[in-house]
Amino acid sequence: MNPMIFINLPVADLDRAKAFYAAIGFTNDPKFTNDKAACMRLSDTIHVMLLTHDFWATFTDRRRVDARAEAQVLLAISRAGRAAVDEITEAAAHAGGTADPCPRQDYGFMYGRSFADPDGHIWEPMWMSAEAIAQGPEAMSHAG
User: Fold this and answer.
1) Beta carbons of 8 and 47 less than 8 angstroms apart
2) Which of 37, 47, 66, 87 has its CA 20 to 30 A from that of 11?
3) Are residues 45 and 78 in the same domain?
4) Could you tell me the residue range of the domain that residue 121 belongs to?
5) Residue 103 is part of a domain; what is its CATH number?
6) In this structure, what DSSP letter does residue 144 have?
7) Chain segment 34-85, per-residue pLDDT in tens
8) Domain for residue 54, yes or no?
9) Which pTM was predicted?
10) What does the pLDDT look like over 37-51, one tens digit per residue?
11) β-pairing, 46-52 with 37-41?
12) pLDDT value, residue 1
């Protein structure tokens, strides 16, 4: 079995967050969804657990940051091509998120944008050419 990732995100409004993630292509897994949390699947191995603020607080004593004002992580996800990067970013904006809170990246062999969900969590959809991946770091030495 391939390793799976479950990204846990605190959300202010669970129903709004579920609708947002559904609008950008995630699917709800009702087996792991209730009035405190929702599991939204991007793929067989990538899941986002949306947790109400009160439920989030049961997992850690650390202070929950306001993702609209502070950033702790940037969640990068691969897309099949440049058009797919643009598509998910525009879908996020139409679903109540913010398109491009971070600068666009276009290095020819790699293209990326960003969006923030309604709670401010930043996602970075990106595409990289198969040739650049095969060549490794040498192909990317002129990036940035």
Assistant:
1) no
2) 87
3) no
4) 73-144
5) 3.10.180.10
6) -
7) 999 999 999 999 999 999 999 999 999 999 999 999 988 999 999 999 999 9
8) yes
9) 0.89
10) 999 999 999 999 999
11) antiparallel
12) 84
Q: Are residues 48 and 97 in the same domain?
A: no
Amino acid at residue number 131: E
Q: What are phi and psi of 123, to 5 degrees?
A: -110, 145
Name the amino acid, one letter, at 91: A
Predicted pLDDT of residue 100: 98
The residues facing 111 across adjacent strands are 106, 127
Same domain membership, residue 122 and residue 82:
yes
The answer as to whether 65 is a domain residue is no
Please give the mean pLDDT across all residues of the chain.
Answer: 93
Q: Answer yes or no: do 49 and 83 share one domain.
A: no
Query: Residue 46: how many CB atoms within 10 A of its CB?
Result: 15
What is the pLDDT, as a whole number, of residue 132?
A: 75
Q: Which pLDDT belongs to residue 140?
A: 63
How many domains in the chain?
Answer: 2
Output the CA–CA distances (angstroms, integers) from residue 38 to 24, 99, 100, in the order listed.
15, 23, 26
Q: What percent of the chain has pLDDT over 90?
A: 85
Q: Verify that 82 and 110 share a domain, yes or no.
A: yes
CB 50 within 8 A of CB 14: yes
Distance CA 67, CA 75 (A): 12
What's the pLDDT at 135? 79
